[in-house]
Every structure is written in C-alpha cells, then in structure tokens.
Design brief:
This protein is of the alpha/beta class and about 350 residues long. Helices cover about 35% and strands about 20% of the residues. Bound molecules: iron/sulfur cluster (SF4). Iron/sulfur cluster binds next to loops. Iron/sulfur cluster binds near residues 120, 156 and 330.
C-alpha cells in the first residue's frame, strides 16, 4: 500500500485490518457503503456511534470532488476531482434517452497522444492514475444517487498506456461491484501493443477504437499515434483481438467538417471495416475555442450517413450529451489548465 492509498478498492477483510476494527463484520458494512458511493463514515448509519467516532480521523478516499457541473437538459454531470498531489481530473456521468447511466472515467492526468481534435490532447501528459484513483471517480459518480449501468474508459488519457491500473480497477468493478465485463468499454486511439496486451489479459471487456479517419496519411496528420502504428497494423491487431474474444468492436468516428465526411472517406471506412465485426459510432465533433475544427452541419452528416447506408455499413450516431458542461467526447481538460498555476 502506498502512502496515499486509503480504503478504496480494498476487500472487506482488508478494510477491517487497515482500520484495526474489533469486529470483522464491520469491514463488510463499510465495504458495502463504499461500494454504493458513500464515502463518509458519518453517513454509514448501521455503524454504532462509538465506531463512527473512533473512525473520524480515518480517510476513505485519496481524492476529493472540487467542482460539479450539471447539464439538466441532457442529465449529464461532470465532476472535477482533485488528486492527492493537487492534479485535477474529470469524470462524467452520462444519461441516454432511456435514462440509463454511463460513467465515463479518466485513466491518466492529461494525455501524451496529442490527437489534434481533442482538448485533453492539448494538455500534455502529467502522470498515470493509480487503480484506486480510477475507482474513486466511479464511486464519486455513484454517490450522485443512481445506479450506473455502464463504464467507459473514454475520459482523459489513453487507457491502454495505463493498462495495469485499468485492469485492477476493472477487477474491482467486476468482482466487488458485480459489473459485467460486457458493460465495461475500454477505449484506445490505436495503441497496438496495448490492444495485444488486452487480448493477452483475457478480460473480456468491450473495445472501442477512435478511428477518426480511414486514410493513412490523413489519420497520421490528425493522430500522431498513426505514424507509429499504421492503419494496417491496427487492423491486424483488431482482427487478432476479435479472434480471442469474438466481441464486436466499436469504431469511433469523430466527424470533422470538411475533413473526413466525403464520399471517398466513406469508401475508405468501408474498406477498413471489411472483415471486422464492427459497428461505426459517428460522433459529430464538439467545437472548442482552442481547436480549429468545425462541427459538420446536419446536411453534411446526412450526406455521409447516406454514403454509409449505400455501402451497407452498420453505424450509430451518438447524440452528444454533456456538451454544455464540456463533458462531451474530447472536451475534458478545462480545469487542468488552471491547476498548474495552483500547484
Ligand atoms: S482522443 Fe484520447 S488518446 Fe487522443 S489525445 Fe484525446 S484523450 Fe488522448
């Protein structure tokens, strides 16, 4: 256990030991509260007053929520979470049209991948998150009071560059919170060694790949990772991954006006998808002041989806939720800029 780790991610018996509790069932009681997102001993009402008093100086989580922004129209909630060393990350709770909730978690502070259309990419990389810091994001979101049905690793960072922590957090979500692997999605910008490592780990979560462009040279100009691992290497890794798990892969396609929405782009997307069991998730770009790209018009989106229909490609269009609180895809990063002055 490092100096900052507290009770998050621990099993009931480990909690009892860490807190030197006299009765082992108290460890189970505390673990049950924590798993519901209750992170204050005062609110653990089945503990005796005496026990709560004896624990008043013990820390449950290593991080704290430092700001909360809600978008009532979409039901999205974004939390700014201050880590033990002062860095701030963000986690978002998204609600779909049926009210089903998804927790979008960060895996790193900032990101080194530098994708040109992503605000997090403009921040640079600070450090990897520990597993307990990933779990804490989920528990803070769970503390919003409703059941969360899905987890996606699509917040700040390239998840597959911090795979050990992500896998440890996934083990906690699965083993201790009962979250099925099918409800957990790991996202990557195309870090091929990470896709291979995930396949070797034999943890059958879902995989989403931020494809964005199926033309090698255009993709390389938008996503520096594509200069290291070409589209053909990426496709080979995805085919190998699919041979292991047999799971459908999601190809995230951030639509950038005038860049990747022409008929020729649809043709290249068709050729990349061939042989893969994949669904294409179209995400109209969310504009940000520091990024030069534009959101495609509805006419542009319609023309592109018409091309995809004509080619028989299976796709969905994501309604961007949380845009008003900068909690939508590629928008996380804002307060990270401010914290550098504070630290
Ligand atoms: S899209 Fe993902 S991998 Fe690319 S810079 Fe943003 S956070 Fe990093």
């Amino acid at each position: 256990m490092d100096n900052y780790r507290t009770l998050i991610g621990l099993k009931a018996d480990e909690i009892a030991k860490a807190l030197e509790l006299k009765k082992s069932f108290q460890g189970r009681q505390i673990q049950a509260w924590i798993s519901k997102g209750v992170l204050s001993f005062d609110k653990m009402t089945d503990l005796s007053l005496e026990t709560r008093e004896s624990l008043k100086d013990a820390r449950i989580a290593s991080s704290t929520v430092c700001y909360r922004e809600a978008d009532p129209a979409s039901g999205a909630v974004k939390l700014g979470i201050k880590l033990y060393d002062g860095f701030i990350i963000e986690a978002v709770l998204l609600s779909d049209s049926e009210g089903s909730l998804t927790a979008c978690l960060s895996s790193q502070v900032g990101c080194a991948m530098g994708c040109k259309f992503c605000r997090t990419g403009t921040m640079g990389f600070k450090r990897n998150l520990e597993a307990y810091e990933i779990i804490e994001q989920f528990l803070f979101l769970r503390g919003e009071g409703q059941a969360i049905e899905h987890i996606v690793f699509m917040g700040m960072g390239e998840c597959l560059l911090n795979l050990p922590s992500a896998l440890e957090a996934i083990a906690y979500f699965h083993d201790q919170l009962g979250m099925s692997h099918r409800r957990i999605t790991v996202s990557t910008c195309g870090y091929v060694p990470g896709i291979k490592a995930l396949a070797a780990a034999e943890v059958p979560v879902k995989l989403a790949v931020s494809l964005v462009d199926a033309d090698q040279s255009k993709r390389a100009s938008l996503m520096p990772i594509s200069r290291r691992f070409s589209l053909s290497e990426l496709k080979d890794a995805l085919l190998a991954y699919q041979r292991v798990y047999g799971r459908r892969i999601t190809l995230e396609y951030c639509m950038l006006s005038g860049i990747n929405t022409a008929a020729d782009d649809a043709a290249k997307l068709q050729s990349f998808s061939m042989g893969l069991d994949a669904v294409i998730n179209l995400i109209p770009f969310n504009e940000a002041a520091e990024l030069d790209f534009k959101t495609p018009s509805s006419k542009e989106i319609k023309a592109f989806t018409h091309e995809l229909d004509r080619r028989g490609l299976h796709y969905t269009t994501r309604v961007s939720r949380g845009r008003d609180i900068k909690g939508a895809c590629g928008q996380l990063a804002s307060k990270l800029e401010e914290q550098d002055d504070e630290r």
